[in-house]
Every structure is written in structure tokens, then in C-alpha cells.
Amino acid sequence: MKRVWLLWMLIHILFCVLAGCTRSGTETDSVKIVKPVAVMELKEGSYPVMLHYTGTVESKEVKRYAFKTAGRIAEVFVKEGQSVKKGDKLVLLEQQDLKFTVDAAKTQMEAAKAQYEKAVNGAREEEIRLAELNVHKAQSSYNFLQDQYKKIKELYQNGAVSQQSLEECQLQMEQAKYSLEQAEKTLELAKNGARREEIEALLKQVETAKANFEANEKLMQDALITADSDGYVLSVISKENEIAAAGSPVVVVGNSEYIGKVGLIEEDVSKVMIGDEVKIDVDGKEMKGKITTIHKVPDDETRTYTAEISFDNTAGVNIGTVIKVVMNAGRQTGIWVPIQYILNDGEDYVYVIENSRAKRKNVKLNGMIEEKVCAQGLSEGEMLITEGIKSIKDGYEVSANGSHANSIGQ
Known about the structure:
6 helices, about 35% strand, 6-stranded antiparallel beta barrel, 23 strands, 5-stranded antiparallel sheet, alpha+beta, about 400 residues, about 35% helix
């Protein structure tokens, strides 16, 4: 009997223990878990938008010097990077052939003048005899050069002389022939006199010969290229003894006035204007500048739009120096959020409180000012969770205990 009583007592105690555990577990499950967080009220703010670019210092004007006639380069007087003054020699062509052409043109001009004057003034007997003598001399010179040309041509065909020697002899022969023709005309005019239309024709010949002489004389002068302004040699393209083609640059010189150049991306071109002031930084030295030009056509390689910036070169920068340029592109209005409150799991998002629960809101970032980003997808007045973020998920019940007093905005 005693054993039965003890067994009944043990069963009763076990039942009580089990009953107590069941009640305790039920109470635990019924407790609500509320996460404490800190929040800030979102407000719309407006901040200045600054564009940051890197550019280079270049010459404001770049001139590519070229010869008007082809020829062999006799001497190059400058080197790349060298400073030059207005009037300094840059490049010189060989002038021997040019001088010969100028002399020939001068002879033709003087002969034409003589014929014209004879036609106008008439000729005396001694002038007629002189004209006959000139014809004889011109004929003899022409016959000699004609014979010389035949000999040199034969030597050239046999490879004994250069083509240049042949061409020079041919040119001399042609000039002698022309002189003979002019001498014969002079003699004819001296004997027969000239009619009005002949005098007019001779005057035109004088004018043509003079224009030809002046053109060749100008080519002679242009055989020496000089700097037409102060500046720096950016590039020496041709070397001594090379053949320079007419119109092809041989030296490139930039003037002494410097500008900064940056390449703007397409979305920023409309944000700045000509006349806008900018800040320029060169190794920590700050200078003020102003946008003077914005190209309307993008660069073929970079697809950026070149902006030119004038500045006072107080820092003494040189061509090619890298500069940092800051441009004011107006103000941007929106909801600005400190970047540390932006989370990312493949998408940018934040947590706000909605009906006492944490709510995830995806955002699109559009611009950054210092430590804040403009977050699209948020509304003014929403309460942004700023602390306790790591311990919550979307839908968790939260309590805004210890909230920040300040709001996010302007």
C-alpha cells in the first residue's frame, strides 16, 4: 500500500512539472519582440552642384608654319619646347634654285620694260645698232646653250650627269631663247616703230613680267619662316635635308597666352555656360578662371565637349600641366541622406518607419554633395531609421527610442 502511494505521488509531481513547463512556454511565445531604433525625419534640401574635372594647360592659339613652295630644308633653327620671340628664325629652305628663278624673272621684266620704252619713245640709229648687237649676242648665247643641252642630255641618258644638271641647262636654254625673242622684237620695233595696239600689248607684257618677278621674289622671302608672335615651339615636324611639301606644316608654335582645357561629358554640357567662373587647382595652388568657349561638336576620340578656360597664370604653370577644375553647375533640390544610412544588397535601399514597423524602400542615387547623396524614392516627412539598422528586417516591429533630434535636409 505504501508503494502504491509513493508511485501515485511521483506521477502527480511529474504531471505538475510538465504542466508548469507547458504554461511557461506558452507565455514566452506570446511576448512581442520590439526592436529599438533611432530615426530622423526626412526633409527636402537644396545644395550647390559642383562638377569636378581634370584638364591640361595649352596655348590659346596654335600656328602651324608651312612653306608656300616645295623645297629642301637647309636649316632648322629651333627645338621642341624652345621659347621664341616675334621675328625669330624657325626654318630655312635652300635658296639656290629660287634665286636663279628670281634673277630670270627680273631679266624678263627689265627686257619687257626696255621694249615698251623703245616702242613709246622710238629708237635712234645708235639704239638700232645696239639692238642688232643684242640680237647677235642673244643668238650666240642661245646657240651655245642649245648645243650644251644636247650634249648634257646625251650624258644624262648614259648616266654620266644628274637630272638636276639637265634641268638647269634646259632652263638656261629656254631663258636664252626667250631673251633672243625679246631682242629680236626690240630690234624690229627700233627699225619699224610700234603701233598703238603693239604699245598696249607691250605694256601688258611689262605688267605680267613685273607680277611674275614680284611673285618669285616673295617666294624667295618666304623661304625663311620666322615667328610672327612670341610663344613656344610645340613640335618640329621636318628635319634638315628633308623635302618640305608646299602647304605642309614644318613647325608648330603656340603663343605665350595659356588656357585650360577640359572635356565635358554630354550630360554636363548644358549645366555650365560661357562666362561662368571656375576654380583651378595646380598642386594645391588655387587660381580663378572663366569659361571662354564650349565646343558644340564632341571630340572624335573621347566623345567629350571641349571647354576652354582663361586664367591668370599666378602659379606659373607650363604647357602640359595637369589641372583640377571645379565648376558650379547650379543647385540640386531633393531628399539628401547621409551615405552611411544607404544599404546595398545589389540594390540601394534604406529603412523607414511605417505603422510602427520597419519598411524597406529602394532608392536611386542621383548626385553626391560631401557626405550626402540625393536619394530618389523617398518623401519629405518620412522617418528614416539611422541606428539599429543591422538588427532589423523588413516588417520588424520597431520602437523609435532615443531618436535623433535633428532632421535630414537643408
